[in-house]
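If it is no trouble, can you show me the amino acids of a protein and the C-alpha cells describing how it folds?
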Amino acid sequence: MVSPPPAAEVAAARLCFGPGLRPLMNTHGHPGPPGNSGPGEGEGGEARKLQGGRVARGKRRKGKGKGKAGAGQGGRGSGAEGKPGLQKAKEAAGLGAEAGARAGPGEEGEGGGSVEEGARRIVLGDEGSAGAGKEARGRGAGKKEEWRVRPGRREDARPGRAQGRGGQAWGCIAGAGAAGVAMAVAAEEEAAAREPAGRPAAGPALLRLPEELLLLICSYLDMRALGRLAQVCRWLRRFTSCDLLWRRIARASLNSGFTRLGTDLMASVPVKERVKVSQNWRLGRCREGILLKWRCSQMPWMQLEGDSLYISQANFILAYQFRPDGASLNRRPLGVFAGHDEDVCHFVLANSHIISAGGDGKIGVHKIHSTFTVKYSAHEQEVNCVDCRGGIIVSGSRDRTAKVWPLASGRLGQCLHTIQTEDRVWSIAISPVLSSFVTGTACCGHFSPLRIWDLNSGQLMMHLGSDFPPGAGVLDVMYESPSTLLSCGYDTYVRYWDLRASVRKCVMEWEEPHDSTLYCLQTDGNHLLATGSSYYGVVRLWDRRQRACLHAFPLTSTPLSSPVYCLRFTTKHLYAALSYNLHVLDFQNL
C-alpha cells in the first residue's frame, strides 16, 4: 500500500484527533460542510504544486463542458462523455474524491459539492478567496466522475482509485474513534481470558518440571497450600484444580462423595468444589429453611432419588421435584401414591418401585412411572419396617414376626419365610450381598435386640452384642458394607459393628449427650454420621474419627418439640422430617 503524501498524512491525523485543530475551510473561507473536505487544508508543498498544475490544465478546457456544484445535491456533472480530456479531468478530481470518502459521506442537503470543488479545497482551503469559489462553481473539463446523491443513499464514483492512493487505510484511521479503540482492547482481553493458560516460559525451576513430577510434589501439600499455590498464576490455578490432587484430601474430608473404600459417588462434580463445601460441614456453617408444612402432627418417612423427594403424609406418599438450588421444592407434587387405609409407617425405593408398609398391616407396591399399585395383607398388626434388595422384600411387624416376600409381579403376596422374633420388630435391613438380613427389636426379652438371619432359609445366624439393658430397642439399623453396620435406638447410643472383628461387642460407639432417644441415623459411607433425637428436633453431626459430637442443630422450639423421624442428606444439603415440618440445612448457599 502506498503511503499518503505528507500533507494528506497531517490532514488524516487532524481528522482523527483534531477536536482542538482548525476546522476545514471551503472555497469562500468558511468552515466546509462535513463529508466534502479533502485530506489537507492547502498547506502541503509538493501536493499543492501538483494539484495546482492539474487544476490549471483543467481551466484551459473549461469551455468543453459545464459543471454545476449544487450544495446538498451531490454535484451532478453533465459534461460530454468520451472527450479527449477525460483522463486528466479524472486525475484532477481524484484526490478530492478520496478525501471525501475518507471524511465520511455527508448528510443529504448538507454534504453536497462537486469533485472539482473538493480538489480546489485541498489547494485553496486556507486562502478562502472569492475567486477560487467562483472557479469551484464554474465549468468542468471533460467527462468527470459523478457523485450521485439520492434520498437515503450515496454512491462513490470509484473506490478502487482511493485504494490505489492509500486513502483506504487512512480513512480507517479517520473513522476510528476512542470508543472503537476501547472496544478492540476489550475484545482482545476477553479472547486472552478464554485462551487456556500456558505454562510460563520463565520463572522458578519448579514450573519447568514435567507435569508428572509436579503432580507428585503437589500431592504432599495440604488444602491451604494448594489454595495459595493456585494464586500464583493462571497456569498453576488450572494445574492445581486437577482432581488427582484433591482426591486424597476429599477422602479425608466430611461428606465429600467418597466412601470408605474410595468409591466416588459423585464423579460429575469437581472434587475441589466438593472439598470446599465439606469445610462447611466440618465447621457447622449452614442456612436453615423449611420445605413443607403440615396442619396436623405426622410421623413422616422420606427417601431421595436423583432430583426427587418422596415423603409420606398420613396414608399417602407424595413425590416432589427439587428446584436447581436443591434447597426448595416445586409446590405441586409430581405424583401421589395411595393404597393404605392407615398411615404409612415406612417405605423404600427399589427397581423403579415404591414398597410401603402401613399401619393397616398391609404392604403396598407402586410403580413410580405408572399407576400400577398392588397391596396385600402381610401381618396381623401394623408393619413398622420394610426393606427391598435384589427383588426380595423383607418386613417386620408389631406382631413379633419378620417375613420374606418376592417382588416378582407374578408372585406378589406369596410369603417365602416367616420368622418368629418373639419381640416387636422396629427396624430391618438386607445385606448388600443378599445373603442375610438383620432385625432390630424392642429388647423386651432375654436376648439381643440385634439378630442376623439367613435370607434363603430364614434361620438365625448370630446375635450382635451382649450388654444391652432391658428396653434398649433398636429403632434404626443400616448396612454400610457386607460386614459392617450401624444401629441406634432407645439406649441413646450409636453403635458401629464389624462382623469380622467381633459379634459380641461393637467396634465403636457414640453417646447422645442429652440422653435422648435416637430415632434415625444416616452416614456418608466414610467419616460423617448424622442422627435425629427425640426432643426438640435436634440433628447432630458426628465425625466418626472422634467420640464427641461435632455440631448440633435444634430445629424446633419448646412449644413444638418433636422427634426427628427421618434424616437424609446429599453433599450439599441435609433434610430432616419432623412432626409438622420438613426442614433443610443448606451447606452450599450461605
Observations:
- The radius of gyration is 44 Å.
- The chain is about 25% helix and 30% strand.
- Residues 86-103 form the longest helix (18 residues).
- Confidence is low (pLDDT under 50) at residues 1-44, 63-176.
